[in-house]
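In keeping with the milestone schedule agreed at the kick-off meeting, the structural modelling team has produced records for the first pair of proteins. Each record is given below as a sequence line and a structure-token line. The laboratory manager (R.T.) confirmed that both were archived under the project's standard naming scheme.
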Amino acid sequence: MKRLSRYRRHKAVGPALLIFALLGIGTTFSVASATTASQTTTADRSALIEEGRQIFLKGCSSCHGINSEGGAIAPSLVGVGAASVDFQVGTGRMPMADMSTQAMRKAPLYTPEETAALAAYVASLAPGPEIPTEAQLNYERDGSLAEGGELFRTNCAMCHNFAGQGGALTQGKYAPTLMGVEPKHIYESMVTGPQSMPVFSDKTITPKEKLSIIKWIKAAEKEPNLGGASLGRVGPVTEGLLAWTLGLGVLIGVAVWLAMKAR
């Protein structure tokens, strides 16, 4: 006891106790703040999911079912993930009136906030591809232009045309043009495989390779038409057809003019 009393009178004891008390208070405050922040985040997430559920019931359940189980004209949304909803709704493809035709890109019906709520609701049903963040979409820094062109020609050009202009498929379907599409939506289309497009998982095309493809598409989008009209950049068939039609039309016109002058 005498030894403790001696240490208690030491001049360093006061500052040490003060530091210890401050550390204790700081730790307690950090734990309490983290718990409160976690509860707030959970509450916000629940509110967003509920908002998305209400939007879904009003605008989507007539085709996809009350519980997103799908139906005769629309597939189930269980497990498609937030990325699929963000792509389909964010590009205006959904909702659509006639499910028997191919969905076309158009002005979105829902706002970005409503789309985010819908995506959160569908994501809560079952695990699926998530919406890529801005950090994941830094294609200028992480992508390779040369590699992207090679990957595009190998995996995408047979449907979307070697210049990304789109092209015809079988049974009246088509691959849409990639010009003017947001990088986020290009990435989401690769991981979700909408409509006739296959799914390119991270094992097939890695995230970095996906960014390289996006970088090449954006470079092709900015490429000027040094030769004049691009004619869709679908190759020599269109150019030859135009030249043949114009040339033949001129020859026919000259023949008719000569025949009329001969009279």
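The second protein of the pair:
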Amino acid sequence: MTTHLAKTARLAPKPYKIFRRLRATTPPQGEPFDVIVEISDAFPIEDTHDWACALRIVGLDREHQAEDGRAFFGVDPMQAIEHALFLAHAELELAIEKYGLEWADGGPYTPATLFRRPGEAGHQA
């Protein structure tokens, strides 16, 4: 079933930008696997004043492996991207409990630090 969000995501400019490269380290079944968070550039929605961007989290499940991902909307480009980042943060928090996550090149990944400012304790680049 194709949703409005998936249809809008197809309009997103490609290639998407990679925001995170992670590794699922303790999946309940099977071998460790890559988890890649990708977000498109924001783009205006035709015949509206709204903007959108697309988010894919490749590796977690079939929904996130969709070619175009899901669209997130905002009143401007920054808000659309902010909404996508917020959901990515929440999904990674759930994934860390289910699969265990680390940075692709090693070291623990803690999504709770995603929104801290550089220089604050526990900030991840």
